[in-house]
Amino acid sequence: MIKQSICHSLSQLREKIGEMKEITKFSGKYAFLSNFYIYPIHYMGYRFITAEHAYQWSKTLDKKIRYDILQADTAGKLLIVNLNL
User: Fold this and answer.
1) Confidence (pTM)
2) CA nearest neighbour of 71 among 51, 52, 48, 55
């Protein structure tokens, strides 16, 4: 009985997975999946406006660059900081 129930559940799960659509871009209802989605991230005692800011900040130990990343209030300004590395 339990084995039959598990098989039935797995069959239902396979059907649902088959119905799922591929996510091809992080916009619209999937925008929140982007590293550039504006949502406060608290990391190592600092507040970042996006996960990308926190990620870029964590890749360097240079205090000036870290300061510039913290000051970058848009993804475009963050890109400029990275281009100057």
Assistant:
1) 0.69
2) 48
Token couple for 6: 């598990």
Look at the block and give the residue holding tokens 């239902």: 12
* Strand extents, DSSP E, the chain: 41-43, 46-48
Q: Which two tokens stand for residue 50?
A: 């996006």
Q: List pLDDT tens digits, range 9-65.
A: 767 766 766 666 788 999 998 899 999 999 999 999 999 999 999 999 999 999 999
pLDDT greater at residue 66 or residue 10: 66
Torsion sign across C-alpha atoms 28, 34, 36, 38: positive
CA distances from 10 to 15, 19, 69 (A): 9, 14, 47
Nearest to 72 by CA among 61, 25, 84: 84
- Grouping H, G, I as helix, E, B as strand and the rest as coil, residue 64 is helix
